[in-house]
Write a structure and sequence with these properties.
By secondary structure, this protein is of the alpha+beta class. It is built from four helices and eleven strands, in the order H-H-E-E-E-E-H-H-E-E-E-E-E-E-E. Helix 1 runs antiparallel to helix 2. The longest helix has 29 residues. The chain has two domains: about 50 residues; about 150 residues, Roll (Mannose-Binding Protein A, Chain A).
Length: about 200
């Protein structure tokens, strides 16, 4: 892309140097317009792929390094690879930017249709330990790096509760979920919709 810009600019300068003033101005305007179009295309590509900021790294309080990567699917949004190699997408959203709530069955299908899957209970345990939780407990956990682990309502901070792929071993209609503010791992009815947020993951 940079090569294209250099060639375009050079061509414009050649034309300008040997052309009357009116033609020179026209050529310069065309070059500027082409450069603007290229910038617009670059921005659109970044928005569609979640690629803006690729390669950026963030370190948690435990020293775990997360790396910004291209989204597996555009609906993954802002995506980060954790030290284990798992890619965590952003929270699923509606077209207007609001949180898209689903039951656990819908959430499973949503992620599969986008080339990913729901995180397992074990994935969330590992994630919260990267974020400061002591082994076997949520104590010490602080939400960090990943966007939208929490939400703000009228100045107060609340958890977003994310479905996992893990079903309770004794009750097949119950699945585990993860509370993004405190790091709680609990379980709830799989058909519950009202507060069921979704964050897809993938390995590439």
């Amino acid at each position: 892309m940079k090569t294209f810009l250099v060639i375009t600019a050079a061509l414009g300068m050649v034309l300008i140097s040997g052309a009357p003033m009116a033609q020179a101005q026209e050529c310069e305007q065309q070059v500027n317009e082409l450069q603007r179009q290229v910038r617009d295309l670059q921005q659109q590509i970044a928005q569609l792929t979640g690629g803006s900021g690729q390669g950026q790294t963030r370190r948690t309080t435990t020293g775990a390094v997360f790396t910004r990567v291209a989204a597996v699917h555009r609906d993954f949004g802002e995506s980060w690879r954790d030290p284990s190699g798992m890619i965590w997408g952003d929270i699923a959203k509606n077209a207007n930017g609001s949180i898209r709530y689903m039951d656990q069955y819908q959430a499973t299908e949503y992620c599969q249709n986008r080339g990913g899957q729901l995180p397992s209970r074990e994935d969330f345990v590992r994630l919260r330990e990267y974020m400061g939780a002591r082994s076997g407990t949520y104590e010490g956990y602080t939400p960090q790096v990943l966007p939208n682990l929490t939400r703000n309502v009228n100045g107060s901070t609340y958890s977003n509760y994310f479905w996992s792929s893990s079903v309770h071993p004794d009750v097949s209609y119950v699945a585990y979920d993860f509370g993004g503010r405190h790091g709680y791992i609990d379980y709830y009815y799989r058909y519950y919709v009202d507060d069921g947020a979704v964050r897809c993951v993938a390995r590439r």
